[in-house]
Amino acid sequence: MLIEHINQQLLDLEAAGLRRHRRVGMSPCSPRQRWQDAADLLVFCSNDYLGLANHPVLIDALAEGARLWGVGSGASHLVSGHSQAHAELEAMLARWLGPHIPGAQALLFCSGYMANVALMTALGDHQATILSDKLNHASLIDGALLARAKLQRYPHAQLDALERQLRACTSPVKLIVTDAVFSMDGDVADVPALLQLAEQYDAWLVIDDAHGLGVLGAHGHGSLEHFALCSERLIYMGTLGKAAGVSGAFVAAHPLIIQWLVQRARPYIYTTAMPPALAYVLRHALEIIEGAQGAQRRARLNELVAQLRTGLAALVLQHTGLSLPPSWTPIQPLIVGDNARALALATALQARGIRAPAIRPPTVPVGTARLRLTLSASHTAADVDQLLGALSNILNEEQS
User: Fold this and answer.
1) CATH fold of the domain at 25-54+292-399
2) Which of 86, 137, 211, 284 is the catalytic position?
3) Which helix (H) or strand (E) holds 297?
């Protein structure tokens, strides 16, 4: 019965154009990758925003880290898995966030998903209310649902609605929770206004900066640096597998919050620590991000974003049923609405040597299926022109 039940649900997903499929990559992460079932493709779907995932300096650092620390940590952080490599990385991350969260300490996690679930469940007890943007990442949503706190969701970026909820909230602990850069639309939260509300209503502001760390800020320190914010009320989650090019995540916050996570965050307590070699190479990645090379890569990335956005805006004007939400980040969503049309566009692009998968519900709201186009500093202007030219040809054929 179970197999029949699952099979029917899979068939239903297929019929609705919602079934997901994995692809097997045969070469390292880069703008041009080889795939098991296709020729080399020009890729516009990676979150490797600064092009560090295959950086030779980091490859050498990983090899050196493995020679120093081996390939596994052997246990959780609280048993025997917390190495000097982990401690030094946490200290570096605390230094990064220190100007924005006075006295900040940092705590490593194996993934951003685990970090967010840890935050929501450890801080969201029966005395708390979580006030969450409706377009927050699934990890924040799942963490809030698992928490014992009351959950209220406010319409995306509508701070008037959030303020009404805060004004009516009687919980002694209030947690405003938001992505900094929203992963499917690329828009940036009004973090200064959110922090102002947190201070006005005695709340805490939890920021998921998965897509801002490394990309935003003069030194790549993320959304808090970009907005020049400083407050003890900030609780910051950043991932290390996107712009940083490696793997893992961290939370930076007031020292007592970090200590509470050590005591009560189950995804931290009951998980084997990330390999210390990864912690070792991440220090080198962070050095690149905040140095001159990182600044050059961010400048290059911004140029590519402007080029792509100009070309996409022209296509939207020329063809019906398309929209391009406002975004100045490396995430540029071309919304087509219909699942079948999004899949057809992705298939046609692949036939022209370009990988840009269709994003469909439940990842995005019903009726907003899209191509989520992401850029890397390793792309070239010619790469962007190739994508725009292919899209133009496909859309012209679609109308003929």
Assistant:
1) Aspartate Aminotransferase, domain 1 (3.90.1150)
2) 211
3) helix 292-318
In the chain, pLDDT over 90 holds for what percent of residues? 94
Q: Which residue, among 318, 300, 315, 322, has the nearest Cα to 381 in the 3D structure?
A: 300
* Distances in whole angstroms, Cα of residue 212 to Cα of each of 10, 13, 323, 325, 399: 35, 33, 23, 18, 37
> Which residue among 73, 83, 183, 247 is the active-site one?
183
String of b and e for 276-285 (b: at least 16 CB within 10 Å)? bbbbbbbbbb
pLDDT digits (tens, 9 = 90+) for 109-132: 999 999 999 999 999 999 999 999
Are 315 and 392 in contact by the 8 Å Cβ rule? The answer is yes
What is d(CA 301, CA 215) in angstroms, rounded to the nearest whole number? 9
Spatial distance between the Cα atoms of 175 and 128, rounded to a whole number of angstroms = 7
Residue 348, pLDDT above cutoff 90: yes
If phi > 0 it is left, if psi is from -120 to 50 it is alpha, else beta; for residue 217 that is left
Which residue in the block uniquely carries the two structure tokens 């140029």?
303
Question: Which H or E element spans position 78?
Answer: none
Supply the DSSP string of 335-349, one letter for each residue. Answer: EEE-HHHHHHHHHHH
In the chain, beta strands by DSSP E: 32-35, 38-43, 105-109, 128-133, 150-154, 173-179, 204-208, 234-239, 249-253, 331-337, 354-355, 358-359, 369-374
Long-range contacts of 34-42 (CB under 8 A, 24+ apart): 35/355, 38/350, 39/353, 40/353, 41/350, 41/353, 41/354, 41/355, 42/353, 42/354, 42/355, 42/383, 42/386, 42/387
Active site residue 392: no
Q: Report phi then psi at 46, rounded to 5.
A: -85, 150
Cis preceding-peptide flag for 365 (omega within 30 of 0): no
Tell me the domain boundaries of the chain. 25-54+292-399, 56-290
Indicate which residue of 82, 174, 242, 254 is catalytic.
242
Domain range 56-290, CATH class: alpha beta
211 tagged catalytic: yes
Q: Provide the CA 216 distance to its chain's centre, in angstroms.
A: 13
Helix (H, G, I), strand (E, B) or coil at 239: strand
What tens digit of pLDDT does each residue of 16-61 get?
A: 888 888 888 889 999 999 988 777 999 999 999 999 999 999 999 9
Residue 54: CB atoms within 10 Å: 16
Q: Tell me, yes or no, if 76 is annotated catalytic.
A: no
